Amino acid sequence: MSWRTTILYAVLMIVMLIGGMSINAQNLCGSDICVVQFNASWNESNSVDYLEKLTDCEVMNVNIDEGTYQSDYKIVVVPTIVVFNGKEVKRFQANIMMQIEATRKEVQESVDEIIMSAF
Q1: Which of 63, 61, 66, 59 is CA-nearest to residue 40?
Q2: Nearest to 32 by CA among 90, 82, 92, 87
Q3: Vertex 40, ends 34 and 44: CA angle to 5°?
Q4: φ and ψ at residue 12, rounded to 5 degrees
Q5: Per the omega criterion (within 30 degrees of 0), is the bond before 79 cis?
Q6: pTM score, two decimals?
Q7: Cβ 75 vs Cβ 88: under 8 Å
Q8: Which DSSP string do the residues of 19-70 spell out, in sequence order?
């Protein structure tokens, strides 16, 4: 292996390491207010379907089977819904039956509170 290849490989590893660290950042989304549903493939039947109807926020679904999301975001039960505004603001966790009891209205109220606190 040539020295150029070695340097290129080293730079690539550094970029990947730095990129991996950004995943550990608090907010997964590109927008300020973000609602993330963490779930697992084996629990898809308990996914929350009303999240796409939320307003004034970005919505994201994350499969904890992939990557280190479970440990990075301390997910202990699925599904878990987390509202972010740069950092975690509110968390809604599933009950013992692995179902979210929080309603669309409750999650939307969390988003609305963030918006109103800016005034």
Answers
A1: 63
A2: 87
A3: 95
A4: -60, -45
A5: yes
A6: 0.76
A7: no
A8: HHHHHTSS--SSSSEEEEEEE-GGGGGG--SSGGG--SSEEEEEETTSTTHH
SS3 category, 79: coil
- Identify the sign of the CA torsion 14, 67, 48, 84: negative
Plot region of 62 (φ>0 → left; ψ -120 to 50 → alpha; else → beta):
beta
* Tokens linked to 54: 């939320």
- pLDDT tens digits for range 5-57: 555 444 444 544 444 433 444 567 877 899 999 999 999 999 999 999 999 99
Tokens of 6: 């070695």
